[in-house]
Amino acid sequence: MTDRAIVSSLYDSMKLPTIVAPMFLISGPDLVIAAAKAGIIGCFPTPNARTINDLEEWLEKIKSELKGTKQEGMWAINMIVHKSYDRFEAEMALVERYKPKFVVTALGSPTRVLDRVHAFGGKVFADVINMEQAKKAIAAGVDGLILVCSGAGGHTGKYSPFSFVEEVRRFYDGPLIVGGAMQSARSIAALIALGADFAYMGTRFIGCPESLVVDEYRDMLVSSSMDDVVTSDVVSGVMANWLKASLSKAGFDLKSKKGSTEIDFSDIQGEGKAWKDTWGAGHGVSATQNIETVKEIVDSLVDEFALLQPNLANELSRWPKFLKDNNND
């Protein structure tokens, strides 16, 4: 299957060109299954499963719940490929056994998984936050890129999607997923207009009953706006967006501790890990006005998307005359 064929095939089976981004300590099998059944793709980070046995149970549940349905292949897993991650080999063995169609790599080179995923026919998409990473991933042979832009919840990028997508599209025409402050159908449509193929939407789905978060986290999302999000590397050693109130509650002093944490993903769910008591969110947090199921959010986005075409056509209809008038001056 060619790169563009991957996009066409997914469009045929999706209600919306949107993927629920994998969110650490948030995404689990219920969220992934609900996303697939709602008509989009769900993805979860493998470290969210407390143990390897738990991960196997999660994969078994997803496979069995979606088996025989039109959504059978509409799910993905996200693997940490950083050298400090000590569960990599055990997780890779399960990936080879359960054969997800899509594997997303993060925090390291995708070369660790490429040959092994391609061997069973899976596709590899690499998270990248800059041009250097994008070019290296393409050279390695990934099947698609995920551009993590400024405003993404959790581990974030620093570039605007307007510039990042434009630069990547100058040399790459393969599948392109873009995340960072995605919160509405307008956001999704804007990405498609930019040249992306899919929106990576995470924060909008954190509060769903199908996620793994506690109700206090959900309440904080509902009451928060973009001003309540802070970008810092204090929690994991990697720049990320966090709800300011959760950092304060966990005792972080951003001024004195910023940049003091070394990157270490060994024993990722172990006791004492700083991120256990902190809650991430992106710049699109204000889209969470109340608690909705995954299906309710997707249905709402689909309805909004359907209304965009006539509304945009009406707005854009003014521009040809404007340009023509200017050209006649």
UniProtKB/TrEMBL annotation:
Q: Which UniProt keywords apply?
A: Flavoprotein, FMN, Monooxygenase, Oxidoreductase
Question: SUPFAM superfamilies recorded for this chain?
Answer: Inosine monophosphate dehydrogenase (IMPDH)
Ranges annotated as spanning the membrane: none
Q: Which InterPro entries match?
A: Aldolase_TIM, NMO
Q: Which CDD domains match?
A: NPD_like
Oxidoreductase among keywords? yes
Q: Kindly indicate where the leader peptide sits in this chain.
A: none
**Protein name, entry field:** Nitronate monooxygenase
Q: Which organism is it from?
A: Pseudoalteromonas translucida KMM 520
